[in-house]
Amino acid sequence: MRTGSFDRYASVLFALIGAAFLFESRNIAKSAYGSEVGPNVFPFLLGLILILLSVKLFLESFKSVQNNNNDREKLMVKRFLIILIASILYAAFLETIGYLISTFVFLFVSFQTMEKGGWVKNALIAGVFSFCVYYLFVVVLKGSLPGLPIWFS
Questions:
Q1: Residues 6 or more apart from 134 whose CB is under 8 A from it?
Q2: InterPro entries, per this entry (predicted)?
Q3: Phi-psi region of 37 (alpha: psi -120 to 50; beta: other; left: phi over 0)
């Protein structure tokens, strides 16, 4: 399988996952007690972003130069599997270890998978992004996300 065809299949898969997020977010209550932003907003936006990025990937897969380098293809599949497993673990442990820690670890693993090295830079970006999104969603928008675990405090 060439890189372009793998990208097309992956983009369709991610678009379907994004559509599932959109569809299932409608089943979540529209508002939460004491929150101006309902719990359905975050999954809806994630699904929408995933669909838009999938469309972009699908369109770019036709533009990409076709090469038959099998080592590169194996590397891309390996990266895909690492990030897929990290995503599943992120969803599984989000409630247990909280948003800040799980998002930081997920982003750090993803950044390291895509670009080896640069540990400090990747850790800094993952930490700042995690904190800023948490602050924006919880403090500014008055939403709720799982905080730090009890054993961490």
A1: 99, 100, 103, 145
A2: DUF1468
A3: beta
Q: Single out the residue of 17, 1, 6, 4 nearest to residue 81, CA to CA.
A: 6
CB atoms within 10 A of CB 142: 12
Q: Name the pTM for this structure.
A: 0.58
Using DSSP, how many helices (H) and how many strands (E) does the chain show? 5, 0
DSSP secondary structure of 46-94: HHHHHHHHHHHHHHHHHHSPP---HHHHHHHHHHHHHHHHHHHHHHHHH
How many residues are present in the chain? Answer: 153
Q: Say how many C-beta atoms besides its own lie within 10 A of residue 25's C-beta.
A: 19
Give the integer Cα–Cα distance in Å for 84 and 142.
30
Structural element, H or E, at residue 104: helix 99-114
The two structure tokens encoding residue 12: 């369709």
Cα–Cα dist 102/87, whole Å? 10
Which tens digit of pLDDT belongs to each residue from 28-87? 666 555 566 666 677 778 888 888 888 888 888 877 655 445 555 566 788 888 888 998
